[in-house]
Design brief:
Layout: H1 2-12, H2 19-34, E1 60-63, H3 81-87, E2 92-94, H4 103-121, E3 126-131, H5 133-144, E4 151-157, H6 165-176, H7 180-194, H8 201-206, H9 210-219, E5 227-231, H10 241-254, H11 263-266, E6 270-271, H12 302-315
Parallel strand pairs: 1-2, 1-3, 3-4, 4-5, 5-6
Helix pairs in contact: 1-6, 2-7, 4-5
């Protein structure tokens, strides 16, 4: 859920420069970043390995969350996870959906991607492992876009199934400061430079609110054809003040959380206990997918976590 951090930073710095000057400065920075935005190597079938620990019956699709993309190798969304899984026999693909788009727009992109993968591999179904907002998009894909027969399992990681109070707080804060439209314009420009063709930062933010997700859950119902399970890390006493602040903020209304999403909101389907972090400050929203450029202090072994998770899917026949 990197979008909340981006918008909050924009507001807290209280930028007074003209919007167009600000936009061009941001454009220059992200243009340099986008030079490295090449197609990720996990778009094609991995080489076969003798290790079969993670050789699931169906291919694995990793679906990223909001405000970043999985096809920018200079800062890899999934870190070394795809390679680690492939070395254990898994067939892994990345989703390549938009960074800032509505749930439905990204769900259609996922549908197209999955049909391509099934055709490429000859598989009948696919296993989805989705982080954050990607889990919501995957649920919508299954329930509303006729893909239940194509999905064997959906594993969500730190997905705000019941919304995140950060989205509500952010919208309220920007409204009070009359910066809402400005923030969304900047965010859309950022997303375009990353690779989004038609970003919609406004919907991407509103659809993560507690209020919106209450409505969403009334109409987007689980399919009996799909195995649903969920995970989340729990953050606590983090050495980085920014993470401590967000953890405390969410805990006042929703209890234990990963500094972005609460444990209460993340539970969906079969809920698995939070993984061990082997340190005193737990696992943040970013640690659980190996995003070390956000939280570099964690000792959490994310590759082992994913290997064990996928091995368990194999054991269950998926």
């Amino acid at each position: 859920m990197l979008s909340a951090r981006l918008y909050t930073t924009i507001v807290e710095k209280k930028m007074t420069a003209d919007f167009f000057i600000m936009k061009h400065k941001l454009s220059l920075f992200f243009f340099i970043l986008s030079i490295f935005a090449l197609s990720n190597s996990c778009s094609t079938l991995p080489k076969k390995t003798e290790n079969t620990t993670c050789e699931t019956r169906y291919p694995i699709l990793l679906v990223h969350g909001v405000a970043y993309r999985d096809d920018i190798p200079i800062i890899r969304y999934w870190s070394g996870i795809p390679k680690a899984l492939e070395q254990q026999g898994a067939t892994v693909f990345l989703a390549h959906q938009n960074a800032l788009a509505s749930h439905m727009d990204n769900a259609w992109m996922l549908r197209k991607r999955i049909l391509y993968i099934l055709n490429e591999t000859g598989a009948e179904r696919i296993n989805i492992i989705a982080h954050s907002k990607g889990g919501i998009e995957s649920r919508l894909l299954i329930s509303k876009l006729g893909m239940a027969d194509k999905i064997a399992s959906l594993t969500t990681l730190a997905t705000p199934h019941r919304g995140s109070p950060l989205a509500d707080s952010l919208i309220a804060l920007l409204n009070r400061k009359n910066k809402l439209d400005l923030a969304f314009q900047i965010a859309n420009r950022y997303a375009q430079i990353l690779g989004d063709k038609n970003p919609n930062a406004k919907l991407a933010t509103y659809e993560l609110s507690n209020t919106y997700m209450q409505h969403f859950n009334k109409t987007v119902i689980n399919s009996t054809k799909v195995y649903y399970q969920s995970y989340i890390g729990i953050a606590q006493n983090h050495p980085i003040r920014f993470f401590r602040f967000k953890t405390k903020l969410i805990s006042t209304s929703e209890g234990a959380n990963d500094c972005v999403v609460s444990e209460k909101s993340a539970k969906w389907g079969v809920y698995n206990p939070p993984p061990n972090s082997f340190d005193d400050f737990g696992i943040t929203h970013f640690d659980i997918v190996g995003m070390r450029f956000v939280s570099k202090l964690s000792t959490f072994d994310v590759n082992l976590f994913f290997i064990e998770m996928v091995a368990e899917l194999k054991t269950k026949g998926y």
